[in-house]
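Table S2 (text version). Query chain:
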Amino acid sequence: MSEYTATVSRPFPALLPALCLLAGCGVGRVEGEPQGGNGDGGGSDGGIPAECTDDAHLDLYERYVEPLMTDEHPNTCNQCHLSGVDLSMYVRDTPCESMECMIQQGVVDLDDPESSQILAFILQASPDSDLITQEVIQREYDGFLQWIRWSSSCHDAVCTDVDDACAAPEGGDGLPDDLQTPLGGCDEADLVASFTDRVWAWHGRCWSCHAAGGEGRDQFGSAPLFYAWTGDEAESSMLTMYNLIGLGDIDVDRPAESLLLTKPLAEGLSVDSSLGTSTGVYHGGSDKFTVDDSDVFDDPTFFDFAEWIGQYVECRG
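Corresponding structure-token output:
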């Protein structure tokens, strides 16, 4: 497991999922401001600029926006649902509509790209983990600034006016078929409730080493931090769930091999569940799932974890 700690600082909760979708943001604070990428902002001086082509627009969108919703980038999406709003409702049918929606929301300023509010949100990421590093923040800042700069010169030339770009299109929410949120078809509230009952409820067994300030940190200081604590039980459970998803501790293709199961399981011990056979791997700390004095394995925590993993995997299809 990689190390990661989540904190919460959300100035505009209703907008944050949209911003995370388009910028891959984290939540927290970072000192200093990355410098933007190369290129000049500003609009055209009359006529359509030579660089304003559909191919250029699509290339920028596919490089800096679309990938943030795919499985290849779970690390920057695991904090994106913190307000409990599905990301898909903020995705439009086209790159033009996605940009226009953000313009209408006031988070992108084509007259002064560098002052766009969304860039300030990107800078709120905290480079204190393997998931969100200073390099990740810089790359997302530069990439998104490049798209805004391109739109500053080209948006009006290549995009048609849309009165309400943020409205969901008829019959859907605009999410392309080949993209998916980290939760797949799951309802967030249902999945978080299940996680709270089946995983978070057992957090005392792992908290000492895997939560900031835990008593075991003195001895196992390199243990990954995935438990979050904000002072609110429900919110902390949700953050912890997204941490585990973003860290890749749930294996959608081979759920029985998910690290959430195999790390706490005694090394070499094989246990059957509804997911298949799980075999313990090296943990570094003490065994959390093992046989009892009668050499029987009947640990309810393991089976609760497996039950929740199965629900999540089913959502992902």
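Notes on Table S2: Residues 42 and 112 are 7 Å apart (CA to CA). The radius of gyration is 22 Å.
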